[in-house]
Amino acid sequence: MTYQIIETCVNCCACEPLCPSDAIIEARPHFLISAKKCTECEGDYIDPQCVSICPIEGAILDSFGKAANPIGSLTGIPAAQWVAMIAEVRASV
Amino acid sequence: MQLKPIAQTASGCTSSGCGGRSDQLTHLPKHIREKVHNHPCYSEQAHHHYARMHVAVAPACNIQCHYCNRKYDCTNESRPGVVSELLKPDQAVKKVMAVAANIPQMTVLGIAGPGDPLANPERTFETFRQITEKAPDIKLCVSTNGLALPEHVDALCEHNIDHVTITINCIDPDIGAKIYPWIFWNHQRIKGRKAAEILISQQQKGLQMLTDRGILVKVNSVMIPGINDQHLVEVSKVVKAKGAFLHNVMPLIAEKEHGTFYGIMGQRGPTTDELTALQDQCAGDMNMMRHCRQCRADAVGMLGEDRNEEFTLDKIEHMDIDYQQAMQQRAAYQQQIEQENQQQSRGEMVISLAALKSKKSLRPVLMAVASSGSGVINQHFGHAKEFLIYEANDMDVRFIGHRKVDLYCHGGDSCGEAESKLDKIIRALEGCEVVLCSKIGYEPWETLEQAGIQPNSEHAMEVIEEAVAAVYQEMADKGELTQQHHAWLATA
Ligand code: SF4
Ligand code: SF4
């Protein structure tokens, strides 16, 4: 298993041009990583490029199926506060 | 297709006196003045008559700001800088041609997002290249966070882009660390103070490179109370020293449901008074742009008037555009505007209240005006989505800025959902003593009066400045201007 883009991807295109292995596909409903092509950027960069620019927490999973950018790691919003906000917005709709 | 006559369809700013009294550009060197002449975002004169559009071709971003949430881009979104229809360069070019053929006032094409144009250089420059080729009469501009600016300055010059807007919120990395959680730099995600340090240095470098090459640079700053508000006075000085010709301070808009860091963490935006005070402080150093209404990234049309709906992808698909013919019409229209402008400036519409013979000094009064255009009071109170704010004092009447009803949330507990539209308006009109409109219902009339704001529909269809002057005169005659505004006294 390599890196994987899941449905929370917002199609911002940031990752696609950075991939040294041409592994990222501009697919719909969301971008995809070709498991065959992805090298985890080994030999090219210290950090996986897609993971390093993706603005959406949880949109990319690592080879263990875990969020490469977990909740709170990019926005700085504590997870509890985020969850509370989502619940509040849902309740008011 | 039929070209619509445009003279009446849109007159950008609804105020005829907006910038009319003392054009803020007069101190600038001639070549710069000429450059900004037609730019609706830069010249107070121009934004009455010229329009700009933005196309959303740049989705990617290379930094994160605490006032932005990349997840939220729903179609109901009308916050500034947010777009829903992402275009490929070819589609964007088609849209620009369609708009330009229909709206001869459209003189400026900008790329501002939804990400950062320079983090999407292929898309951005491909769009500019095609426009320069197909519609050479349209000016190009780009807004950026500045991180990738230095490396693209040469390309910008090649494309003959002479307007660049840089968003600079700080020059102190410690402050920056509270605004920017991370940047993508040199193939790495960098966080904290170091990230801010790199971003700031790139912004300042890019700014200097652009002004060295004679490219016009405007600086935008978001005012974040408690974070960078006082610091922006310093920012204003520094960017001016580097040659930026305009510094535009905008209020932070942070609501919980936007899902931004600031929104969720309860960071409030500035009150209109705080904003105006800071703008005044910065204006001592530099020209400020008070008529900014924080347009959406894909806004089409005059500032504050979004005609994007008329030009969606499937609609332009069926438009048949003869751009050669359109270009002639555009040129004719613009010439006509020029002539009118010259006549107006000869006529010098200055409202002088110096005639007010009062021994006591009179306090200034803020008045809000509901107008849908043409510089007259012609809008029903209930239809106004924004108000023009004028200040009258014993010398003259001057246009201060716009207040949008929905945009101005002041945070805090008063911000509950139960708040009615009228409450919102009253809050947006904080500090105003009079509202001038063409008509107003009985109920809002009463509520406004209770809030210490006097509604007035006696001056319907009159020229704004003249009406404001007349009302001020009446207030002076009644002796209301030698005492403090009672609403202020009540709350003070
Ligand atoms: S980890 Fe590297 S190689 Fe794999 S998809 Fe991301 S950028 Fe491409
Ligand atoms: S950077 Fe993240 S959100 Fe953007 S397209 Fe790639 S995976 Fe999707």
Strands of the widest sheet of chain B, in order across it, are: 9-8-5-4-3-1-10
Largest sheet of chain A: 2 strands, antiparallel
**CATH architecture title of chain A:** 2-Layer Sandwich
Count helical runs of chain B: 15
N-to-C terminal Cα separation of chain A, in Å? Answer: 39 Å
Short description:
The complex is a heterodimer of chains A (93) and B (492). With 93 residues, chain A is α+β, with helices and mostly antiparallel strands. Chain A has helices at residues 49-53, 79-92, and strands at 4-5, 24-25, 32-33, 60-61.
What does the model show?
The complex is a heterodimer of chains A (93) and B (492). Chain A is of the alpha+beta class. Chain A has one domain: Alpha-Beta Plaits (2-Layer Sandwich), CATH 3.30.70. Chain A has 2 helices and 4 strands, in the order βββαβα. In chain A, a hairpin with a 6-residue loop joins strand 2 and strand 3 (32-33). Chain A is elongated. The N and C termini of chain A lie far apart (39 Å). The mean pLDDT of chain A is 90. By secondary structure, chain B is α/β, with parallel strands linked by helices. Chain B is built from 15 helices and 15 strands. Chain B has helices spanning 30-36, 89-102, 121-134, 149-158, 173-176, 192-212, 231-241, 261-265, 272-283, 313-317, 323-347, 421-428, 442-450, 464-477, 486-491, and strands spanning 51-55, 63-64, 106-111, 139-144, 163-167, 182-185, 188-191, 216-223, 246-251, 300-301, 365-369, 386-392, 397-404, 432-436, 454-456. In chain B, strand 3 (106-111), helix 3 and strand 4 form a beta-alpha-beta unit. The N and C termini of chain B lie far apart (60 Å). The A-B interface holds A 10-14, 17-18, 45-47, 49, 51-53, 55-56, 74-77, 81-82, 85, 88-89, 92 and B 59-62, 64, 66, 69-71, 73, 115, 119-120, 122, 181-182, 184, 187-189, 256-257, 259, 261, 264-265, 417.
